[in-house]
Design brief:
By secondary structure, the protein is mostly helical. The chain has seven helices and two strands; from the N terminus they run H-H-E-E-H-H-H-H-H. Strand 1 and strand 2 form a beta hairpin.
Length: 154
Amino acid sequence: MRKLVLLVLILAAALVLAACGGGGSQSTPAESNSASQPGAAPSGDAAAGKALFEQQLINGNAGCVTCHSLEAGKVLVGPSLAGIASRAGSTVEGEDAQQYLHQSIVDPNAHLATGCNAADPSAACATGLMPQDWAQKLSEDEINNLIAYLMTLK
C-alpha cells in the first residue's frame, strides 16, 4: 500500500512540474515598450492583470497562480510573488522593476529567480521551470496588464 501511495505522489508531482514547464522552445523577448522603460508608469490595467494572473490555465499553459503564491515564503512551484514590486527593481543591476518583470515573463531563463525550493530558498530556480513561450501566448497588452498588477504587490 505504501508503494502505491508513493507512486501516486511521484506521478502527481511530475504532472505539476510538467504543467508549469511550458512548451520547451526558447522564445525571443517581445519588443519593449513604455512599460519597460526606466521610470515609466505601468501602462497596463492592474485589474485586468489580476484577472489574468488568477486564471488556472492561460492559452494552454498553467496560469501564474498555479505556480506562484502571493503569500510570503510559500513555495508552490515557482517563487512567491508577495512583495515583488518592492524587490524587482533591485534584482538585476540596470533594470527597474518593470523591466525586470517584463524580462521575467518573456524570457524567464534570462535571470533565474530564487525561492522555488522550500528547503533552500536561496537556491536558483531550475532552468525551464517557467513556461518559455509567454511572448507568443500573451499579447504585449496582456503582459503590460500583468506587470501593472505585479507592481501593486508591494
